[in-house]
Design a protein that fits this description.
There is one protein chain. By secondary structure, the protein is an alpha+beta fold. Among the domains are: 6-164, Immunoglobulin-like, CATH 2.60.40; 385-474 and 481-500, Immunoglobulin-like (Sandwich); 512-571. The chain is built from eleven helices and 31 strands. The strands form four sheets. The chain has an 18-stranded mixed beta sheet that branches. A hairpin with a 3-residue loop joins strand 14 (237-248) and strand 15. The protein is globular and about 80 Å long. The termini are far apart.
Length: 572
């Protein structure tokens, strides 16, 4: 039986205190009980793991899987505690630091593979029964997955160093990863170091932590502060407070990023324009979650688009890329940025950053410079593949001006890690239609092209990559023909001087009629004999009671009428 003396335990304690200093001393004391329990375990070996950045040699956080020969997963004694919040709370979770950490778990059950994993801050130790083990380490899509095999004997200490190496480094070229949709509570600022290390483990440079609301209250996944006081930084990794509020079953779920204060109008909850206008005053970004389709978000957009206050639509999430509504907005002349987020932990098959987007930032990364990049449409969404795209030398989000109809040079590339993705083809999308598809060629892990293209009308152009996924394939595959591996750029706009804009082209006129129909349907649902049914569609998540609908009916009907006039003019 393993014997731990008081002296050796105290020595181990001091070693951990020194090694854990970058997080905080509180974390060390949380694992001492585990150490003491393991001290009496019989015939165990010790595996000490060191994860280091291959270039700098500095310890780096990552997600770790340790499996025995039977496929059982093990968790490090000093694993990073993590947790998200989907619970609708009657009262805010007003936690102390100790309570906030106590409700977290060191065990992470991968929802994709159903395997037990854990997060490491860069150094971890496990007490393991004698036997053979397989170690797998992941750190987001930019890093190569590392696999090792190790044998542990009883009473043996095995030290294992795993260098983490990149296959690509977009941040070196000013492109930074982000998840726009994380429900991770921060009731006190002292939890920031824990959450930051967690995001570093998934290599998410900009983590937007969304407090979420309902018509009855706005305090779930509570954030201790908004604006600059709610931001936290470690190197080029940022945490920032945002909100998914308002959220209704008939207008969709709204996201606001970069607000200086929480924005809520409980007495006018379904009048989204009030939220957008206040967000605009605060310099924040405004958008729709869940593809602009779920929870009737397209109805909400039909009311809000004419005000030209919406900046983005979340188009990649839950193993799906759904682009139709986003394409419609671009074809009507609205310059809309695509974003991506996981809705962690509230959706199926999600891990922070599994669906993400990259934003081109000019100069040093700050939250404000990142917001500006999103605002200007300099993004691409992905769950692995990395995209480059230019037209006549102009990049994603830019505008190419042509004096007359003529040829422009399109240059594009997708790169991917063959151990993670198997991209089948790269498509050129113009005004929502695929005009050219480039299949895999002789260069493994890359598809590139140059395409002279004749533009006869003002257009928007983007790239889309699709294929299979070879690593962490979901247990819940999306319905066909959804691919496993996918990426999509934001638009580059090609404007021909003197030609009709997108909003005056035939496609926009047809779409305007379609959106008029959405508005008429929404308007009809507020009729005296229908409004009860609308309220009757409520659930515990995002429903709106009849009293609130009656209270806001006049203002919402006026907004609908204003939007109908806008689209009627476009449809002529």
């Amino acid at each position: 039986m393993r014997k731990w003396t008081f002296i050796s335990l105290e020595l181990k304690k001091e070693q951990l205190l020194r090694g854990a200093a970058p997080l905080c001393r509180t974390f060390v004391f949380l694992i001492l009980a585990s150490m003491s329990a393991a001290a009496s375990a019989e015939a165990l070996g010790t595996l000490r793991i060191s994860l280091v950045d291959k270039v700098s040699g500095i310890p780096t956080p990552a997600r770790v899987e340790v499996l025995d020969a039977q496929g059982n997963g093990y968790v490090a004694e000093d694993a990073l505690p993590v947790d998200g919040e989907c619970m609708d709370r009657d009262i805010p979770a007003d936690y102390t630091m100790e309570r906030a950490i106590a409700v977290m778990s060191k065990k992470f059950v991968n929802p994709i593979t159903d395997i037990i994993e854990f997060y490491s801050v860069g150094k971890s130790f496990l007490f393991l029964p004698p036997g053979d083990y397989k170690l797998t380490v992941r750190k987001g899509p930019e890093f190569l997955v590392q696999k090792r095999y190790v044998h542990i004997n009883a009473d043996e200490i095995v030290d294992l160093e795993v260098p983490m190496s990149r296959w690509i480094n977009p941040s070196a070229e000013g492109w930074y990863s982000a998840d726009d949709h994380l429900h991770i509570a921060r009731p006190v600022k002292e939890v920031n170091p824990f959450i930051s290390k967690w995001m570093q483990a998934e290599d998410v440079h900009v983590a937007n932590l969304l407090e979420w609301g309902l018509v009855r209250h706005f305090h779930n996944a509570l954030q201790y502060a908004f604006g600059e006081p709610g931001q936290y930084r470690e190197g080029d990794y940022l945490l920032a407070a945002g909100q998914e509020n308002p959220r209704t079953h008939f207008r969709g779920h709204a996201i606001i990023l970069g607000g200086k204060t929480p924005i809520n109008f409980p007495e006018a909850y379904v009048i989204y324009q009030l939220f957008w206008e206040e967000a605009e005053r605060q310099g924040a970004l405004k958008g729709y979650a869940h593809f602009g389709t779920w929870f009737s978000a397209d109805s909400g957009l039909s009311v809000d688009l004419p005000g030209k206050l919406i900046n983005f639509i979340e188009v990649l999430q839950f193993e799906r890329g759904i682009y139709d509504v986003w394409y419609d907005t671009l074809n009507m002349g609205f310059r809309m940025t695509p974003t991506a987020g996981t809705d962690y932990p509230c959706g199926q098959s999600n891990i922070p950053g599994r669906e993400r987007f990259y934003t081109q930032v000019v100069g040093p990364l700050t939250y404000e410079s990142w917001l500006d990049g999103v605002r200007k449409g300099r993004t691409f969404v992905t769950n692995g593949p990395m995209l480059d795209f230019h037209i006549n030398g102009k990049g994603i989000g830019d505008e190419v001006l042509l004096k007359k109809p003529g040829t422009a040079l399109l240059e594009g590339r997708v790169r991917f890690d063959l151990n993670h993705d198997d991209v089948d083809h790269l498509d050129v999308i113009i005004n929502g239609a695929t005009v050219k598809s480039f299949p895999k060629g002789s260069h493994p892990g890359e598809i590139s092209f140059q395409l002279p293209y004749e533009f006869t009308s003002t257009s928007w152009v983007a790239l889309k990559a699709v294929g299979g996924m070879t690593d962490e394939v979901t247990r819940f595959p999306p319905p066909p023909p959804q691919p496993g591996s996918q990426a999509h750029t934001a638009a580059i706009y090609v404007t021909i001087q003197g030609a009709p804009p997108l909003s005056a082209q035939p496609a926009a006129k047809l779409l305007a009629r379609k959106w008029l129909a959405k508005l008429e349907s929404l308007e009809a649902s507020f009729a005296d004999d229908q409004i009860q049914k609308l309220a009757g569609a409520v659930d515990t998540n995002d429903g709106v009671d009849l009293e609130s609908l009656h209270k806001n009916r006049a203002a919402l009907l006026k907004a609908i009428q204003d939007a109908k006039r806008y689209f009627a003019q476009m449809a002529r």
